[in-house]
Amino acid sequence: MIHGRSGRKLKRTASHRKATLSALSTSLLRHKKIRTTVAKAKETRMVVEKIITRAKRAVAKEGEGAPKNVHARREVARFIHDKEVVKLLFNEIAQKVAHRAGGYTRVVKLGQRLGDGADVAILELVDYNVAQEEAKAPARPRRARRPRKAGQTKTAETVPEKAEEPALESDQTSAPTAHQPQAETPPETTA
Domain extents for the chain? Predict the structure, then answer.
């Protein structure tokens, strides 16, 4: 029995797995939400939680009057290979999650992918509820219609007419079918 081996191999070598998790982490921090398989989402979540905690602690120490924690930025930059994302992490994300004790991410399962049947999920940062904010945004009110002027009515010029389909000669002579309505004749009255 093997004890203490945690984590998923994701059918990759160690270097490929590290590159995959690095790319997923960078995308999550940049876009605040990514769509991937459940296994990759759970592995990425473990990595991102540690990165955000490191950034949060570094920013908290800087707030006490200490200089910038360059070492923490370099440690994060070893894994996140995008300078803009590292700046975003330390300037915006770490400050936004400063009050949170942990659990910065959420995995929402979506079901199976059509192509290969893999279980798909959304991995998102909890403090950035992008989908919920869009749903809460009020819809643009509908504009009221302009009232018509007193003498204005619909005319043939304003309302386009449907082009009549030419009838075939055989259809004109035969009895009406299911798709051709029979013309109603008014009852004859004697005067």
Answer: 14-136
DSSP state of 4: S
CA 78, CA 180: separation in Å to the nearest integer?
75
pTM for this model (two decimals): 0.67
The pLDDT, as a whole number, for residue 145 is 77
Is CATH 3.90.1030.10 what the domain over 14-136 is classified as, yes or no? yes
Q: How far apart are CA 136 and CA 132, in angstroms?
A: 6
pLDDT digits (tens, 9 = 90+) for 84-96: 999 999 999 999 9
Q: Is 40 helix (H, G, I), strand (E, B) or coil?
A: helix
Q: Report which DSSP code applies to 91.
A: I
pLDDT over 70, % of the chain: 73
13: which residues sit within 8 A by CB, 6+ positions away? none
H helix intervals, 78-128: 83-88, 94-96
Characterize 99-130 residue by residue with b for buried, 16 or more Cβ atoms within 10 angstroms of its Cβ, and e for exposed: eeeeebbeeeeeeeeeeeeeebbebbbeebee
Per residue in 26-37, pLDDT (tens digit) is: 999 999 999 999
With beta carbons less than 8 A apart as the criterion, state whether 86 and 77 touch: yes
Amino acid at 117: G
3-state secondary structure at position 156: coil
Q: What letter does residue 127 receive in the DSSP assignment?
A: T
Amino acid 21 reads L
**pLDDT for the residue numbered 155:** 58
